[in-house]
Amino acid sequence: MSRSGFLRLVAERLGFLVLTVWITTTVTFLLFRLMPGDPTLAYLSPTFNEETRTALLRSFGLDKPLWEQYLIYMGNLLQGDLGTSFLQRVPVSQLLADALPNTIILTLVALSIAYAFGIVAGAFLAFQRGRGIEGFAIPAALATRSAPEFWLGMLLLAGLAFQLGWFPTGGAVPPGSNLGGVVDRLTSPEFWRHLFLPALTLVLYLQGLPLLLMRATMLEVMNDEFIVMARMKGLSRWSIVMRHAARNALLPVVTAFALGLGASVGGNVVVETVFAWPGVGRVLVQAVQGADYPVAQGAFILISVVLATMNTVADLLYAALDPRVSVGARR
Amino acid sequence: MKRHVVAAMAVAGLVTSLPVSAQPAGDPVRTLVLLAQPQAALPQEYQAAELIAAAWRQLGLQVQIRPLPSQQFNQIVWYERQRWDTTTWQMVGRPERSDPDELTYNLFLSANIANGYNFVGYNNPEYDRLASAQREELDVAKRKQLMIQAQELVNRDQPYGFMVHPKNVVAFNKNVWDEKSIVDQAGIGARNTWTWLSIAPLGAQRDIILNSVSTPTNLNPFNISGAQGSWAAEITWDRLMRIGTDGLPQPWSAEAVTRPDPLTVDVKLRAGMKWSDGRPITIEDAVFSLVAPGIGDKSPMYKPFVANIANVQATGTDTLRITLKKPDAAFLVSSLAKLNLAPKHVWEPIFQSLQGKPETAESVMETTPVSSGPFRMVKAKLNEEIVLEANRDHWAAPKAARWIMRIQPNTEAALGALRSGEINFLADYNGDPQILRDIAKADPKIKIAEALDMGFKFIAYNHRRQPFNSTPFRQALSASIDRELLAEDAWGGAAVPSNSWVSPALTFWHDQGIEKRVPGGNVEAAKKILKDAGFVLVNGRLHYPAGVKETTAPFQ
């Protein structure tokens, strides 16, 4: 693809990205306001009266017409102001800023390990097609892929934390720790000890997709003419698999990684709850349960931005790696 | 009516096969819908609803249990008061409810029917009189008699179907903490401010590490921060009075509190107290703390607690006088033991800056809160943990070094953390109490502390809708509830039968033995109440008394 064609594609994809985020933002805004109940229900108590409710609604900005709320909300959003949590009474940006690094670290670590393992194991299993190990490895990959995350997590907790005591039962740092910043945490062995079980749960859950994808693509590629040519040239089987077949089979796996990264930012709800991991998923669950509109909106916007961005990245990556795809798309 | 029924059945060829009541009957009672939160959310309440529905079916009623997600559930019960028939509900125990006034005045007063806490719509002028009289009566013995009369009246009218008073079940590591230093507070249990102050370490571990299932809210002296947040707030900010372990108010930051007449409260401030920034606590700070929640609508959650204050004035360098708008027997508990002392030099400018803006003081975040309590906040990562450290300069300094609340939404993991020693105080446990008892039996370092709560669980009847507007009907429903069964089966023994909003934990105010005095008291007696009131069983289905039509739309 020419340079100008690629830039045009980038501009087009970025346009779609902005449109997607705007639609998500608007739908999220409306969705929470159409749900039964309002945030003041979280404060019901015998001393709660109509005056209190009115004051709370006014402080939340919910006393205004819907269109006005929307305009204020979008205006604030464009200035980077996500509002203040109705329930926790702290800025949404602060809640998300506290939670996001934890989610990103958990996701990146788990996805990287899962995909590294999946790619190598998938290539290896394609190489071992028809042998005995296939009969064990494929069902094992399918089983861990199908097992619910909470069940995997509870099993790991029961075995490695409750029984053996090798790992902590939850949280990201030891009680009362001074590990506040991201750098402090990343350089602390205690943080990695706390990360181990939630990351392992995610790795077990996530590795099935790249493994099976890699294996299937490899099997396809192994029948291509350039592989036959490599064999005819007398290259070793290892060299054929890793240097020629695997490189060509990686394309769909790279796409899946980008999409998986986007999805995992908002999709770690279960693992974060089981392991008390202070990430975005837990913030989101609490916000939805408590009709905390600003937090839920903020979290959904964050997730949609990441997801849409990763989709765009995958799209562009695909175009860059395989010009045939983008050229086809342009027509 | 009877002739019509017999004729219709004869035509249908059923007259010889189905029993027919000898009494004339009105329309059949529609299918009644009992609202509940989903079993996964509140398993004990849901099981109780199932047991109660089964009992009501024995009375000839058709009953459906309708689980609803909490937001929808609250929305319908609270804001659509004409719509529902009956629902599960609860009142939780809080220190300020050690005086029964808050619940007595708000739950059943007819003035609160439209949009207050009398959401069932109970309307009895005699009750209104008693509730108002007890509030204004400063003679404790006379007030107690009024409270007993109010409880008897509610027993007669059965506006609620009381179920149980739950027990608070917590556990701690007795290898870490001296079990003799754990304090039981009446109606609250072992997880209370007095325990946090007196709990004594046995070894090197001096940090209280407890769990919280929920995430707390922003902690500041003008935000009521939910159940878990309030555990931290109560020991971070001082109050003029505190609820003692006996449930009665006692001076705290005040050296003395006197009431020269029903409308006047005099306070003498304790000497030598300091804020965490080193400045002394002055009488101006105390006056400001009592006045600030009433300024505009900048502290909506605290405003009701100062609504009865007409004036607060410093009368000396360490004394102040509060003038009330009307007599309030519970003022010391509901206001002086509830309002936090806040530093005027910090909060007065904040309140001024909030004027004309939609924001309230509740969402103000202090980087380092200035407080005076026995603990000071050093870390508040709300989704992770709250860390307080002991204020060694406090006149009631705690024995522990730090108070660390870990946010752990997974109850199973919290139990594992207690066993592994990661936490040493299981403060927030809503699981099956038997599981905890079994763990304590198997692990000698774990000690359970069970105590009766001042809260209660109940079935709310909507008096706006027939047949719940009929007192005998409500009496019969309440009579058929087997409270012993609920306590043992649904709550696993961690509850006692209830028939009053005043828990037996509040021994002074509770009407002794009232739980045994539900009118009727069993299913057969309930049937008799219904029969005496004219309700008729026709082919096993309960009908209204003769001439009464079913005019109420079923809950959809």
Model description:
The complex is a heterodimer of chains A (331) and B (556). With 331 residues, chain A is an all-alpha fold. Chain A has a single domain, classed as MetI-like fold, CATH 1.10.3720. Chain A contains 15 helices and no strands. Chain A is globular. The two termini of chain A are 12 Å apart. With 556 residues, chain B is of the alpha+beta class. In chain B, the strands form 5 sheets. In chain B, strands 2, 3, 4, 5, 16, 17, 18 and 19 form an 8-stranded mixed beta sheet that branches. In chain B, helix 5 runs antiparallel to helix 6 and helix 15 packs antiparallel against helix 17. The radius of gyration of chain B is 26 Å and the shape is globular. Chain B starts with a helix and ends in an 11-residue tail after the last strand. The N terminus of chain B is likely disordered. At the A-B interface, helix 2, helix 4, helix 6 and helix 13 of A face helix 3, helix 4, helix 10, strand 15 and helix 13 of B.
Brief description of this entry?
Chain A has 331 residues and is mainly alpha-helical.
What is the average of the pLDDT values of chain A?
Answer: 82
**What is the CATH domain class of chain A?**
Mainly Alpha
- Poorly predicted parts of chain B: 1-20
Name the CATH architecture of chain A. Orthogonal Bundle
- First CA to last CA of chain A: what distance? 12 Å
**Structural class of the helices, strands and pairings of chain B?**
alpha+beta
Strand content of chain A: under 5%
